[in-house]
Known about the structure:
2 domains; 4-stranded antiparallel β-sheet; DUF6808 domain-containing protein
Amino acid sequence: MTKTNIILTFLLILALVAMRWLHLAWIDEKKERTTLQDQYDEAIKNNDAAPLVILDTIRDTVAGTVTYIYPPVVTKKNTDGYVSKGLADTLAKALKVATKEIDHLTSKIISIEGKGKGERIKDTITKTEWLVMKPDPVFDVKVNLLTDSIYPSAKIRLAQAYAPYRKNVFSRYQYRSAIMAYDPRIQISEVYDVNKVPRSPRWGLGVTVGPVITPKGFTWGASVGFSYDLIQF
């Protein structure tokens, strides 16, 4: 056995070991995705949309923000199956399209509770006394003490970002979404974020480079040709 054949045999064994390791990693990743997908599919089967599972909550005490991390749903089906029918129909009506034409749909419930002290302020022009809430990053509440009228207002600031995510260089890309609220009292729940993606084509043009088996033994080779995916993951 020549030195070249020994090296090629070693590389082939190394490639088989790497493929086996990638296969096991893919199985673990698929189990994680399947668990979340099963939750959505079971909810749809029972005619009830499933809110997303929040993976992590990050509170920044210095910046005074709270960030919610969750995995958005990526599906090749229609998005209306993953949210309440009323919401899907309302948005489709507003867009003047059919629900099957919506390729991105998101909704969430935002809530906040707070309390604070007020200061009595007299308006010398209107002869009215007000109870004004001390400065707050979200709430602005005024009470007319003469008429017992309340004038509340609130400003909630949010930021949302999407980013690709994968556990390692061999894993497939997934997506994570983050919603940042600029006040730690803000709570976000009932999150729905569905993205419709086109089905990957089965046909493709590819290049293969590596060791090949010939009647004379192992050797290096390269080929260009069409490929067809029998199974898509």
